[in-house]
UniProtKB/TrEMBL annotation:
Domain of life according to the entry: Bacteria
Keyword Transmembrane helix: yes
Protein's name according to its UniProt entry: DUF2062 domain-containing protein
Spans traversing the lipid bilayer: 50-76, 88-110, 159-185
InterPro entries, sorted: DUF2062
Organism: Roseisalinus antarcticus
């Protein structure tokens, strides 16, 4: 294939680039900010898209953030591309504090507490739920019975508290980002319009 990489990257390098992209997260954030400011839409629609993207990062729908943010942006009549770009608010540097805040808020709102050894078994609950999903999928084609114990534990101790607890901090963070981004986008677009107007006036003067 014409566009296939000649040098296939090892797995460790792929993981490293996911955790720490080339140029660092600071450069990635600058790129996203630059792209958001240059979107061809009204500042309000762009910032509604930003709101949707940031809010989604506080939900447990990992792997579906693009889709969910696009749906929310469409409901809010926000900019879809802004919503997709803003999901990068959630990254390997922010997912841990986001998860801690959302889970603790969820436990408090639901009046529940995680089981003993929660911090040690958090990743195990994710992997256990994944194993149950795969096993149940395979069970549809084999005589084996479906197993739901680990999925149920994951739902009650991780997914549901995360989903409920992420709503309030998600709304707060998304709203803060909305009001921080709105004047920046508006000022950038106004400056860009002035620059274009000045160029047009120069062209007319020459003509």
């Amino acid at each position: 294939m014409v566009f296939k990489r000649r040098d296939r990257r090892p797995i460790w390098q792929v993981v490293l680039r996911f955790i720490w992209p080339r140029g660092g997260w600071g450069r990635a954030a600058l790129y996203v900010r630059h792209r958001l400011r240059r979107l061809p839409d009204t500042p309000e629609k762009i910032c509604r898209g930003i709101w949707a993207g940031v809010f989604v990062t506080f939900t447990p729908f990992y792997g579906l953030h693009f889709l969910v943010s696009a749906i929310i942006a469409m409901v809010m009549r926000g900019n879809l591309l802004a919503a997709l770009l803003s999901t990068f608010f959630g990254n390997p540097l922010t997912y841990v504090p986001i998860g801690i805040v959302s889970l603790n808020m969820g436990y408090w709102l639901l009046g529940t507490r995680p089981g003993e050894g929660f911090h040690e078994s958090f990743l195990q609950k994710f992997s256990g739920a994944g194993r149950d999903l795969w096993h149940n999928f395979s069970a549809m084609f084999t005589p084996e019975k479906a197993e739901w114990a680990r999925l149920a534990r994951f739902y009650h101790e991780v997914f549901l508290p995360y989903l409920v607890g992420g709503i309030i901090p998600g709304i707060v963070a998304a709203t803060v980002c909305y009001y921080l981004a709105l004047p920046v986008v508006r000022a950038y677009q106004n400056r860009r319009k002035k620059m274009l107007r000045a160029k047009l006036e120069k062209l007319r003067a020459r003509g």
